[in-house]
């Protein structure tokens, strides 16, 4: 079966511990501290792989772990950094926190590679803790712990056009006629189980089209495989309703369109507002029985609403060229910007709510310098890349929501004063 969803547990590497050792040589019996620093833990990185089109690799293995950093050594030897783990996913994969379903990363558009969990920073060796009054420090800093998270991976198909319709209306036949896709075609009353993608080439340009598996009533509430199918429509810019105009199985095509639009509206109102076109399929099976032509009925019902109706036969090819030209015109009139889901969940946010201690003190030599230290601060700096825009935005939130700014203000900090945190300094401004 097409694998478009998987839940896995990811873990970054622990930072290596700093080392406690002292210089011991033949003529230097009481040398100073020379313990090396521990290595940084490996990151968990997600990367787009153009050769993949399913999440099948993640259905059989649940846990993925980056390497831990190595402990520091004697003679100031730095421990080796832990290797990153790179998880390859198909384009269009959305990574979410499994508990809240909030988006961590969308591997689409320009986002081809993203660090989701950072490894812990390595601890400092005892060489860093020698002072005039403590020349034999027997303490080294432990490495920072790893981060672990359960994430949900969902593949949301990237296509310009989505074919929607109830099962057995001819979507797969239509797709096989207009593209090089080879979907399995049969008289299945349940539905196609996986989205099929194909490239359409027309004289006025090409586009990607997806046969979204057949919907059923109640899909927006998760009935059947409703949510699994509806998620693939989220990125499409134009929707094509394929209906059985001949009612070969007794279905009313007008009723079908209203039912599908109701499901789309209930799942995501924004999707239902996208441009639509109706392909009245199976016109080769319509016979003049003295009743009103079903294509005329469709036109009367939907064209006043701005939805064009094209009579086609996916089997013979009748009317298909005109439909494709209209679809391309609709695409050209829509924004071309790729639909990318914004990040809603930041794994580092757990640091804001942690109850680890910290202290705020005024520097004895310079009263305009405020020193903030403690396990909470060390942990935050170890996981945060302050050189990146996202990392710095998180740092600002950490100061505010973690109560650090409140403590600094209580200690009497003024605009222009300096805040120092383990070698990192910044000026304070409200």
Automatic annotation (TrEMBL):
It is found in: Cytoplasm. InterPro entries: G_OBG, GTP-bd, GTP-bd_Obg/CgtA, GTP-bd_prot_GTP1/OBG_C_sf, GTP1-OBG_CS, GTP1_OBG_dom, GTP1_OBG_dom_sf, OBG_GTPase. Its cofactor is Mg(2+). Its EC number is 3.6.5.-. Residues 159-332 form the OBG-type G domain. Residues 32-42 have a biased composition (Gly residues). The keyword Ubl conjugation does not apply. SUPFAM superfamilies: Obg GTP-binding protein C-terminal domain (SSF102741), Obg GTP-binding protein N-terminal domain (SSF82051), P-loop containing nucleoside triphosphate hydrolases (SSF52540). One of its GO terms (biological process) is ribosome biogenesis. NCBIfam families: Obg_CgtA (TIGR02729), Obg_CgtA_exten (TIGR03595), PRK12296.1 (NF008954), PRK12297.1 (NF008955), PRK12299.1 (NF008956). This is GTPase Obg. It comes from Blautia segnis. The gene is obgE.
